[in-house]
Task: structure prediction
Amino acid sequence: MSPLYSLSGIRQRYAGRLALDLPSLSIEEGSIVGVAGPNGSGKSTLMRMLAFLEMPQEGQIRFDGTSVDASSGGSRAAMLRKHVTLLTQEPYLLRRTVAENVGYGLAVRGQRNSADAVRQALADVGLPAQEFMHRQWFELSGGEAQRVALAARIILRPKVLLMDEPTSSLDEESAERIRMASMRMRDAHGTTLVIVSHDREWLDSVTDTMVMLRNGHLAG
Amino acid sequence: MDFILEGIYKAFLLLLGGHEETWSAVYATVAVSSISICATVLLGAPLGFLLGYCSFPGRRAVRLVVDTLLSFPTVVIGLIVYGFISRSGPLGELGLLFTLQGIAVGQVMLGLPVVVAMVANAVENADERLEATLLTLGADSTQLLRATLWEVRYHLMLATVAAYGRIVSEVGISMMVGGNIKWHTRTITTAIALETGKGEFAMGVALGLVLLIIAFGVNISVSGLKRRVAK
Result:
């Protein structure tokens, strides 16, 4: 069986500086991949490329049978983004209610955006729907906002959930909720998880594969 | 002083008594400015988004032109529109000269730079995480435009009221393109200019009061929206 992601000959530069140099990297479907490395090692660049927010300047990414490279048009990346979603360390919440934030992804996909699905997604991240659904974006703490952002991605049932330092700035309860919800996604729906985290204990306990980066290169 | 107080007293009588000529100018102003502001926002919001969001050669030059147009004198706009829609002009066959629609064309040119510049500025200064968030949730380019404009909606409303304030108070375009025709294209501002020139101070004051009320409403809206934007 071919891997879900195959990256080959990836080289990415910013202002002439080499940010990422990956001769080869594969990610199997349904696996949990941890990405670690010091600041500036290229972790976030890799995540943006896996999320198809950034196209490779050199090399190719093959995802589920579809290839993208520097010459690929925006429509192909947009099509692939329907299967992949990214949760960042400090996610942006739309200036809307919690329910509208959680349901936004379904709405833009033209899928039925039911209140039940929103309630379930909120329950998955440990937020009581009755209490949170109608809150405005500015009425949430940092941990609650992060959990709402995760709920907005869980509801999409993506093939791949990319998480870039999802728990680093959270209280322990919120961090644990995020960890549990992401693991449940993999177990229940076979979602592939790619996690960047400084929490090596968590990564070591859940990941099938670790990708170590240093100065934009694979370190082990 | 008596002359001014008498003018104000007579102005109230004209307004409260339903003086037809006065209310005709009020109606023409409200009608044409409503058409103008709707067209201005419909055109200006997407153009402002493109200017604030997209990178293209000559973008800085376009920004400079738009910013320069913010202070475009209304009589110059009136002159240009007059040239285009006069009988011998390239758009003369449309028959827009001395009509409210003709005034609206000029007023859209007046309001457009305000909306484009303010929306472009809001989009440029929007949170840098917004685009990635929308894309990773599956938005396509049209949905990205709509969601971004919704995110900066208070700025858009602020731009709308600022443009409306400019449109409703202009006199040069209405006078040159509309021709100040009684019962037809005479607006509040052109009527004030005419009536004051004729010595009919009361009607000028009456129309001035209506304009002040509109301006007051616009200012209240602007200050309320500024508070929302600052939130």
In short: The helical segments of chain A are 43-50, 74-80, 98-108, 115-124, 129-132, 142-154, 172-189, 200-206. The mean pLDDT of chain A is 92. Chain A touches chain B at residues 48, 51, 53, 74, 78, 81-82, 84-86, 88, 90-92, 94-95, 104-105, 108-109, 138, 152-153, 156 (CB under 8 Å). The two ends of chain A are 24 Å apart (CA to CA).
